Amino acid sequence: MFINLILFTLSRLLPVRRLDYLFNLSLPHSGRTIRMFSKINESLFEYISFRKALFLFKRTSKLVPAYKTFLNKKNIQPGLIKSISDFNTVIPQTSKENYIRAFPVETRCLNGKIPSHGHIEESSGTSGKSTFWIRSRKEETCNLGMVRATMNHLYDIEKNGNWMILNCFMAGGWTGGLRFASRLSSLGIVKNIGPDPQKTISFITEMGMDFSYLLGGYPPFFIDLINYGNTLKGFNWKNYKINIFSGGEGFVEEWREYVSSNLRQGSKIFSDYGAIDLDVGISTETPFTVAIRKLIKNDLNLRRDILSSDRLPSFIGQYSPQRFYIRETVNKDGLKEPEITVLNLKSVSPMIKYVIGDEGGVIRFKDIAGKLENRGYSIAKVAEDFNIPAVVQFPLIYIYGRSDGTVTINGSIISPSEIYEAILTDRELVSSINTFRLIVKSDTDNFIRLFIFLEMRKDVIISESLKDRSEKAIINKLLESNECFRVNYLKNQISFKPVIEIITFKTGIFAEKDGLIKHNYFL
Fold it and tell me: Please, is 512 exposed, middle or buried when counting C-beta atoms within 10 Å of its C-beta (0-12, 13-18, 19+)?
């Protein structure tokens, strides 16, 4: 109570820059940071988040040419925005379409200038046209403290020491791998390997059993890695202290259970959620959110209480309100999606009320605590049952996937538009296929695969030749337009070949009862 009273007083009296400085000052002492945060009430985090969001909005509207023009076109007068309520209701959202692609990269920077130090990140997404993002050295340095605190909370890295960190994300210019390596280099020795099971196991066996290993990579890679290791004579996963940090895409709890069952008891597996548009580490799974995922997986009533849905998200994590101001909004299609403002005061290309296009929502800590209590799960009981040392009152974010049906697998972003374009190359396919749906799930060998379900038009006769024709058109299109898919596929065609399923009209997942999750791409 006393610490919250002091911090509330300071948060009201101090300028935003000073508040931000004090927050960052605590992070180098990362061994104590999470324990300290666990004693702070979420209303204090929220208040500071509100102040920073308004501060950054005002500054961006003055100093960033692109954002100034964006607001002028929307007839917004920044001086009239006096409260967080005004900010939430009056200020329009930004997106890749209406902001990033609408303005040159330098005009999206402070004072219309690219910084003299930092780096330029590039994403081609699914359009094949590159998009550039600017990060300054100062803003990346500002992120390192929270990264350090988080990784210590999850893996006890500083406490246990002697870590080898293996970067098994896609090599080259992909941001996830670059950021993972740069941010974790201060916590241990980093070896950049890429998604190569043979090289990964070769390195582990060469270095031996005295190290603790943290492997970063995409979920499908770890299934491939585990299965490959199990085929090697004389190699046993349980002989090594292996921990997992996955990113780039979500997964089901069965994935975590399968990977964990092959590793030594006590191995830790967590994942994060992010996007190159904003930050690769927007939210991270914590012991608390992993417990929530396990509880709602087995308790349908609790799932409905918390999510207002029977669906299981592919990700649930917590995020720092000091780093992001996130609101749950509803898009034009009636789907919930997070709206994110980055609260890094060192950002040279600020992002205000940005929507990535992911379907999901936000839950206040107070709300989830109440819903757990109503179902007989107090926070104290959850912490005890799942052996959680500290629960921070940070809000939760949950993600189902891209709201437009886009999926991600092993770093490859596959959009419905690519599949649509593939089908349009063949007149017979156009006349035969009614609609389709993309799903990423485990096959019978637990390897995560891309499944493409094609619903035939009424009265179309299913044949092997039609399936082969569809498969050829889709793979050729992805090889032509999607660089990351091409790299994966050419490396291992068996593992990364999409599974094409031909479905009779209005049957299976396309039956009427599944209408709420059906994606219609043909009219």
Answer: exposed
Between 477 and 342, the more confident residue is: 342
pLDDT of 230 higher than 50 = yes
Other CB atoms within 10 A of residue 386 CB: 15
Q: Which helix (H) or strand (E) holds 191?
A: strand 189-192
- Helix residue ranges, H only, 336-443: 365-374, 379-385, 416-424, 427-432
Question: Rounded to whole angstroms, how far apart are CA atoms 201 and 188?
Answer: 19
The first and second tokens of residue 186, run together, are 């201060």
| Average predicted confidence (pLDDT) for the chain | 85
- 168 class by beta-carbon count within 10 Å (0-12 exposed, 13-18 middle, 19+ buried): buried
Cα 446-387-288 angle, rounded to 5 deg: 65
The residue to which tokens 């921990």 are assigned: 243
Other beta carbons within 10 Å of 192: 14
pTM of the model: 0.81
CA pair distance 68, 108, nearest whole angstrom: 10
Is residue 521's pLDDT more than 70?
no
- Structure tokens given for 175: 């941001």
268 three-class SS: coil
- Token couple for 379: 């926070």
Q: Dump pLDDT digits (tens) for 294-307.
A: 999 889 999 999 99
Give the model's pLDDT for residue 446.
Answer: 65
Structure tokens at 378: 């107090």
* pLDDT tens-place string over residues 35-76: 677 777 788 889 889 999 999 999 999 999 999 999 999 999
Chain-centre distance of CA 447, in angstroms?
20
C-alpha torsion 97→99→100→106, nearest 10: 160
Task: Return d(Cα 361, Cα 338) in angstroms, integer.
Answer: 6
pLDDT in tens, 120-147: 777 655 445 667 788 888 887 777 778 8
- With contact defined as beta carbons under 8 Å apart, do 382 and 288 qualify? yes
Triad 115, 116, 122: Cα angle to 5°: 60
Phi, psi (rounded to 5 degrees) for 297: -65, -35
Q: What does the buried/exposed string (b/e) look like for 90-102 if buried means 16 or more CB atoms within 10 Å of the residue's CB?
A: ebebbbbeebbeb
CA 395 from centroid of its chain's CA atoms? 16
DSSP H stretches of helix in 107-170: 137-155, 157-160
What is the architecture, at CATH level 2, of domain 408-517?
A: 2-Layer Sandwich (3.30)
Please report the pLDDT score of residue 398 as a whole number.
94
What span, in angstroms and rounded, lies between the C-alpha atoms of 64 and 56? 11
Question: Can you give the residue ranges of every domain in the chain?
Answer: 408-517
Strands 241-246, 269-275: pairing kind: parallel
